[in-house]
């Protein structure tokens, strides 16, 4: 059974890796969509911005699929509870993302200014809304989601759609949007020339500073936020359900892991180091370094949340003792083992292919190259 415990911990770490990949790669593309109308003042400049990410945006969606698939297979109880209770949020996310591929493919099919302007707004919405929802979802996990189970483990959601966008969740959503704009600005700097390069640089600098401020405010806020404490439960190596544990809420409980293990303060420190170095790199025009330091910033942000919440995955505000944790919501030992085997094979392939695609398609995009290429969007 110690193997089962190890597999649960490994898949908790892998879930974090997939969420970081989603935030970095998908968030970068969505950041470009969010700032498209601001870095591009005319059609040629906007086409430059679009074509910087055109070879990569659909491939980057692999991280979105991997994240959802990993939750479905490794943490089925979390998947079922979240997707049934937060159904309206999932639909908003889906609707906002449906127009994304349409905007990329159809925007330049007609020369009409109104036609292209309409699709530009679609790219803005499909960039801004998903990242806002992503951050708000993490904010709600920290506060607890209003659900509970009956004796058959059927989940019941008792909250409302409006409640999901409470002040703390909006703060987390704004942090997510700021980070996506920073990453989008860095990749535009790397793949364009002035004036798009200069505008992207200014937006990335502002977004990086805003992200640091919001992260600091969120960290202070969490110290007074009601957290969750596992008081009593079955042995972590045993198969269990959320009906066999006792969990209590307490103000500042999310800081318990940091108080017990001071070494964990390295994780939020990574955020400050990464973003401060990233802002410095962007200000000097070193966009590649700025992008990689932004990755470090995302690792620190999501790692900070994970370190605070462990072992919780989806706390319940309706009945804290029904909260979902690493110990009670995972798949079977055999499922986790098979999935790990496939991950060991395919994850390096995904990383290799992504790196190869960026290397092959490196270089600057200019209005001239866009007009000359029959494959440009």
Can you walk me through this structure?
This protein is mainly alpha-helical. It has one domain. Helices cover 69% and strands 6% of the residues. The chain has a two-stranded antiparallel ribbon with strand order 1-2. Strand 1 (147-149) and strand 2 form a beta hairpin. Helix 4 (62-74) packs across helix 5 (76-85) and helix 8 (167-191) packs antiparallel against helix 9 (196-222). The protein is globular. The protein starts with a helix and ends in a 5-residue tail after the last helix. The model has no long low-confidence stretch (mean pLDDT 91).
| Nearest-integer average pLDDT | 91
Task: Return the string of H and E elements.
Answer: HHHHHHHEEHHEEHHHEEHH
Main sheet makeup: 2 strands, antiparallel
Query: Strands of the biggest beta sheet: in what spatial order?
Result: 1-2
Number of separate domains = 1
Counted by DSSP, the helix tally is 14
Shape: globular
Task: Please bin the fraction of helical residues.
Answer: 55-70%
The whole-angstrom Rg is: 21 Å
Structural class: mainly alpha
Number of strands: 6
* Low-pLDDT windows of residues: none
Residue fraction in strands: 5-15%
Our measurement of the CA-to-CA distance between the termini, rounded to an integer number of angstroms, reads 53 Å
- What oligomeric assembly is this protein in? single chain
């Amino acid at each position: 059974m110690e193997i089962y415990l190890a597999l649960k911990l490994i898949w908790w770490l892998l879930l974090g890796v997939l969420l970081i990949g989603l935030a970095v790669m998908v968030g970068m593309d969505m950041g470009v969509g969010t700032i498209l109308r601001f870095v591009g003042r005319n059609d040629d400049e906007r086409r430059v911005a679009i074509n910087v990410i055109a070879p990569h945006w659909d491939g980057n969606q692999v991280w979105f699929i991997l994240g959802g698939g990993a939750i479905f297979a490794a943490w089925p109880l979390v998947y079922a509870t979240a997707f049934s209770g937060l159904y309206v949020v999932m639909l908003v996310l889906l609707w906002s993302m449906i127009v994304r591929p349409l905007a990329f493919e159809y925007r330049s099919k007609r020369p009409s200014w109104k036609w292209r302007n309409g699709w530009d707004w679609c790219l803005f919405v499909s960039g801004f809304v998903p990242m806002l929802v992503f951050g708000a979802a993490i904010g709600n996990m920290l506060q607890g989601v209003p659900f509970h189970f009956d004796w058959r483990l059927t989940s019941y959601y008792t909250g409302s759609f409006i409640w999901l966008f409470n002040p703390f969740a909006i703060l987390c959503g704004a942090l997510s949007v700021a980070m996506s704009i920073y990453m989008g600005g860095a990749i535009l700097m790397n793949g364009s020339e002035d004036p798009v390069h200069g505008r992207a640089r200014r937006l990335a600098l502002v977004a990086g500073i805003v992200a640091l401020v919001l992260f600091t405010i969120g960290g202070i806020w969490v110290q007074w936020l009601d957290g969750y404490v596992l008081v009593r439960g079955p042995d972590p190596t045993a198969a269990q359900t959320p009906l066999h544990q006792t969990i209590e809420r307490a103000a500042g409980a999310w800081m318990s892991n940091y108080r017990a293990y001071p070494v964990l303060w390295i994780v939020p420190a990574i955020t400050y180091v990464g973003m401060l170095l990233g802002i410095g790199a962007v200000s000097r025009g070193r966009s590649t370094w700025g992008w990689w330091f932004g990755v470090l910033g995302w690792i620190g942000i999501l790692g900070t949340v994970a370190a605070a919440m462990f072992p919780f995955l989806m706390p319940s505000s309706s009945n804290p003792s029904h909260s979902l944790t690493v110990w009670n919501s995972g798949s079977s030992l055999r499922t986790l083992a098979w999935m790990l085997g496939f991950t060991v094979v395919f994850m390096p392939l995904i990383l290799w292919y992504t790196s190869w695609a960026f290397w092959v398609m490196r270089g600057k995009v200019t209005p001239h190259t866009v007009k000359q290429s029959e494959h440009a969007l």
